[in-house]
Request: fold
Amino acid sequence: KPRIAPAGSKRRGKGIAAGVKAVLTPSISGAIVMMNADGTVNVLSSTVEMGQGSETMMGQIVAEELGVSFDQVHVVQPDTDITPYDTITAGSRSTYHMGNAVRTAAGKIKAELFQVVAKKLEVNPDDLVAQRGRIFVRGTEERGMTISEAFLAKFGSLGTTLTGEAICQPEAIPTDPETGQSEKCTEYWFPSATTAEVEVDTDTGQVKILQFYSVGDTGTAINPKHCEQQLLGSAITHLGLTLFEEMIFDEGQLVNGSLLDYQVASIKDLPDSFRSIVVEVPHETGPFGAKGVGETGALTVSAAIANAIQDAIGVRIHELPITPEKVLRALTQKKEKSSPGKVQ
Reply:
């Protein structure tokens, strides 16, 4: 939209920023998938569900790989007594690393069942597909077997279980000490871009976000709605870090150590136009082309807002948070430089 003419003390500006971040490499994720003769599946993983959607993601990947419905998959919560090792639930790594681990483990079960069905139907296992709880010849769905029938053919009894285990352990190539270069310093990158329009009150220094767009490359979006929410959630976190959040110390003592004094972004601080844009560029080694998205929306928030403020009032704020006091101080310094020798 065209720039709105200044009104009184209010000035508007627009900013954009782009960046990339590397995923933690090397690291390791292990998974165990157990399929029962009735088609239900248990997934053992030490990835911690904390609201980011990892449990849903793993369930979707396993369901897709084994050709069963999502509600037939149960993800067992992490317990170091029974669930295999995972480096950490952080760093935007769970979808790629644990996603690959659970898909590979499920794939081993599928391969065993395909061998059984292929022998019964006298076909090549490569000609089989698994969908809707059945394993059948591609293009001829009636020529196939249910999951339960395949288990019965393999074991001669129902109530049986197949188990698959897998580890995803990407490696990195150390950087050259002379050039600082590496042929593979990370398993993958996640690009991010942010655009923001702000309104700055030159009398008070207050910054108001008018429009905000968060763009992220997620690879194949296993769950598009979750990806959109991840972009917005991480953006909101860094909106608070950009404009409000600051730990204040007085003679070594924290003076704003509670939410009564420590300011965070609230619903009133969000713009009316606040959107995420998911860009899907499938990753060649990701599970169904997916990769992590947890931090993607956070990377470029501060830079985009700082750029928008500079566009609005012509000053660059270099320190976070960008408080009204810092804005007014920067405006005063700008005025002093433009009028040298003038008494303020």
About this structure: The chain has two domains: 10-23+188-338, 29-168. The chain is about 30% helix and 25% strand. The mean pLDDT is 94.
